[in-house]
């Protein structure tokens, strides 16, 4: 995955220290109720679509942009379904990041699903009862997107 220019600029002065970054996930459904997934080029595994918000970009706009950039599908973000601070990760180059993920339920409005950049090996629509193997990360986001429950969040420390 390409590192956004604004993160490269921060890394030039911050080095490898832990950065909190705004991660956005998009769970996109078509009119038939199928979910759009991409098989990631970095892991080879299927997942929901996602990326990092650019400075000044609204999170819903990030979700819509990332979906189009990665899959050529146009969508509209309908609601926030989940907010979660993910565990910190360390990349092979030593950079450390923690993502604050905001997940949106999105509705496809056009375009044909296809690989549209180098972040995916495959892109496809799946019936929710016939999903490929997915991580808990992706499964939780799909599950929450299928409910009418309020936005899910986690409290791991006492208030």
Automatic annotation (TrEMBL):
Could you tell me what this protein is called?
NUDIX domain-containing protein
Q: Name one Pfam family in it.
A: NUDIX
- Cofactor annotation: Mg(2+)
Alphabetical list of Gene3D superfamilies matching this protein: Nucleoside Triphosphate Pyrophosphohydrolase
Boundaries of every Nudix hydrolase domain copy: 19-147
On whether Thylakoid is a keyword of this UniProt record, the answer is no
What InterPro entries would the database entry show? NUDIX_hydrolase-like_dom_sf (IPR015797), NUDIX_hydrolase_dom (IPR000086)
Q: Which UniProt keywords apply?
A: Hydrolase
Q: Which organism is it from?
A: Streptomyces atroolivaceus
